[in-house]
Design brief:
Elements: E1 2-10, H1 15-29, E2 32-40, E3 47-55, E4 68-73, H2 76-82, E5 86-95, H3 102-105, H4 115-121, E6 125-129, H5 131-138, H6 144-153, H7 160-170, H8 176-187
Parallel strand pairs: 1-4, 4-5, 5-6
Antiparallel strand pairs: 1-3, 2-3
Amino acid sequence: MGLNIVIVGVGGQGTLLASRVLGNMGAMLYKDVKVSEVHGMSQRGGSVVTYVRMGDEVSSPIIENGQADIVLAFERLEALRALPYLKKGGKMLLNTQQILPMPVVSGAMEYPCDILDILKQKNVDITAVDALSLAVKAGTPKCVNTVMLGILARSTDLSKDQWLELIKQCVPPKTVEINLAAFEFGYNA
């Protein structure tokens, strides 16, 4: 038995830091952990997909469609794109933030306005939170990732104190306090 988590977002949202924290979490709970950034143009605001697999034995870092226990989505459109990864009975944790991709900004495409409705129609077990507002409340919009980890923490076997320790270990020292506050906001959302 293990846990497969797909993290999706847009470059600059901190998906890689989140995957590092989850990799460390997996090392505490399981014998084997694999983390893989699949694709993305993180420096250009493009889509980023990261796989985190943990269990007694993990043969591949890749999570196939229908295998994710949890999709941790930092942006709405990315959540919709990641839906095929979610297994039946899996959970989607979604930041309701909307970040317009370049084709939308240029006018070549439209941003779907009914993403939450589409997800609900597909009977997805979804927790949707305005993580951006909570991050700003904590002190900086850059902590959306840590807010989302706080939301995820309630679905794991680690205690809140263990999570707080993971956050302290993984974030830059000068940002510890603000990240801990962001985690708390997510945890209590």
